[in-house]
Write a structure and sequence with these properties.
single chain; about 190 residues; alpha/beta; Glutaredoxin; six-stranded mixed sheet; 6 helices; 8 strands; about 25% strand
């Protein structure tokens, strides 16, 4: 009986962990739900996102000056998010390299069930170089149909067209370079 209980627990753990680390990219083509974010006070972040509004004003992802936007769903309390942070920072660097060559690729993070304080703590602890936004009530997470953290929602932004979700990824990724290539491919760029 004791062995059965141990095997049952191990099986459940495997079923829970494998989707996180063995995740695959899911191509999609659906409109991005309405998300309302607050213009950051940090001038670097405002410039990075191409925003012209004043700090504290509201904006939507459609206002971001980019061809592709990646939204990371994370939580300060998620050990997988903490483990993934260096790879996501590497992804940001690769996005910056690609953006210098013509395709503008940006990333933001949404802290699921996190306050501004928790988001800032995550940013400082893991040296996150891109803007992070709190989603304390998880309204944006739910609207994006989040399926755990970390999660990634890849969006195509075209002038005059609605923002379109082109890729979903629940869990981490193994290679920043391959993930970025897949994101660009799914965006049709």
């Amino acid at each position: 009986m004791k062995k059965f209980a141990i095997y049952s627990v191990l099986t459940l753990l495997l079923l829970w962990v494998v989707p996180v680390f063995g995740s695959e990219y899911t191509p999609t083509n659906e409109p991005l739900p309405k998300l309302v974010l607050t213009v950051p006070e940090n001038d670097f972040y405002k410039t990075y996102l191409g925003l012209t509004g004043k700090a504290g004003e509201k904006f939507s992802p459609a206002d971001i000056q980019a061809d592709i936007l990646l939204i990371e769903l994370f939580s300060m309390y998620c050990p997988f998010c903490q483990n993934e942070a260096p790879r996501v920072n590497e992804l940001y660097e690769k996005m910056e390299e690609v953006s210098k060559k013509g395709i503008k690729v940006k990333i933001i993070g949404l802290g699921a069930s996190n306050s501004q304080f928790e988001v800032e703590h995550f940013k400082e602890t893991y040296n996150v170089p891109f803007p992070l936004f709190p989603d304390k009530d998880m309204s944006m997470y739910k609207a994006l149909k989040g399926a755990g953290t970390p999660g990634f929602i890849g969006c195509r932004l075209k002038d005059g067209e609605p923002v379109t979700i082109v890729l979903r990824n629940s869990g981490g990724f193994y290679s920043a370079e391959n993930f970025l290539k897949e994101l660009i491919h799914e965006a049709g760029l």
